[in-house]
Amino acid sequence: xxxxxxxxxxxxxxHMHSYTNARRHEEIGPLVIEKGDGIYVEDASGxxxxxxxxxxxxxxxxxxxxxxxxxxxxQMKQLPFYHNFTHKSHxxxxxxAEKLVSIAPVPMSKVFFTNSGSEANDTAMKMIWYxxxxxxxxxxxxxxxxxxxxxxxTIASASLTGLPNNHISFDLPIAxxxxxxxxxxxxxxxxxxxxxxxxxxxxxxxxxLILAEGPDTIAAFIGEPVMGAGGVVxxxxxxxxxxxxxxxxYDILLVADEVICGFxxxxxxxxxxxxxxxxxxxxxxxxxxxxxxxxxxxLINDRVYQPLADESNRIGTFGHGYTAGGHxxxxxVALENLRIIEENDLVGNAKRVGAHxxxxxxxLADHELVGEVRGVGxxxxxxxxxxxxxxxxxxxxxxxxxxVNGHLQENGVISRxxxxxxxxxxxxxxxxxxxxxxVAAVKKAxxxxxxxxxx
Length: 455
Ligand code: PMP
Prior knowledge:
Blueprint: H1 22-28, E1 33-37, E2 40-43, E3 48-51, H2 54-58, H3 66-78, H4 91-103, E4 110-114, H5 117-134, E5 142-146, H6 155-160, E6 177-180, H7 185-188, H8 195-213, E7 218-223, H9 239-249, E8 253-257, H10 271-275, E9 281-284, E10 296-300, H11 302-315, H12 328-343, H13 346-362, E11 370-376, E12 379-384, H14 399-410, E13 413-414, E14 416-418, E15 421-424, H15 432-454
Parallel strand pairs: 3-13, 5-6, 5-7, 7-8, 8-9
Antiparallel strand pairs: 1-2, 2-3, 4-10, 9-10, 11-12, 12-15, 14-15
Helix pairs in contact: 3-12, 4-12, 5-11, 8-9, 13-15, 14-15
4'-deoxy-4'-aminopyridoxal-5'-phosphate binds next to helix 5.
């Protein structure tokens, strides 16, 4: 059902794409993007699109921010690379670490730099295990994650991810990773169950799982404040408070995966602030540098850091790190990116224009193909159904998402269908009238799809 891409498919032959149906790709080819300008990107044929996913939830400041280009150029000229192994450092990474600690939503002690969200979550897992060993609790290694959660694709982070697509055929998850329920009220609540009762039930189920596994074997819980790739799942208002009460009772660390929510997405600097989450480890990437260059990081508190420091002192080193972790060029870009976010109040913009986007998208909730519209700030999901009453999909799950998303691309908006949920996560610089253009294109794509589905 996917439409062929209009542009000449130049790179079908050699480039195997991420998250792509390889055979379908051989048929339809890629959409080749050549330029960016604000919230827009342009393909090789000159057609312009609103990048309504900010290029994989990434580009806070838009696609043409000269200050980031200049920051990268300056740093490239001064010191294009240096590492952070064994007592070496450089100014961009020192300044960035200081900045991140200063804006952290809860008191944090240290920053550890990595290169991708997946690497950062791998690092979190290793830090947690190292800490348990340091504390003389080698049995305390299990990490609880959630079904539908997304934490990356390396062996460890794909194990934390709770999507079947990332486990089946890869022989994952690895040992010591277990998955609990998702706060997805529309799909997973019982008939007539209130959001509040649903949140209470999820917290109870978490506690039962901990008791069944043995509380002294559970080291940590990881979750995204708002789930992104799992279908933009916004938890009930009291969910995080109830989950944190259970974790505190059994001395379990909390990892907040802010790879999508971090730096303004939900209308606060961090999703943790929007939902009252108090993490021990906060994982960030994407909007940290607006993804102009890859960089990710973990903020850790003293509860995590002090045992790590003691253990590394005892055995000689903390034996973990990446050659390019804390690379000076992406670090300089990230610093400038954070300055732009603050100077232009992009977090405030996400809150204000986000409220407008939520309101406008919710006007589509009456459409015959829309099951639910959900979101907060500048992140939203529109879940599509073929039958509003039964919430049943069209043909097979994901087919409707693909169909509507194809029409949306024709209409000049790039979204992403996560199964049957369309994601909307535009750059934080978007204006209300640009939101209106986006929503009009979504409406048009829904209308264009209707005869195919009902006809
Ligand atoms: N965590 C979350 C919440 C993510 O959304 C992603 C990427 N979409 C990752 C981790 C993994 O990041 P990366 O693709 O940079 O490895």
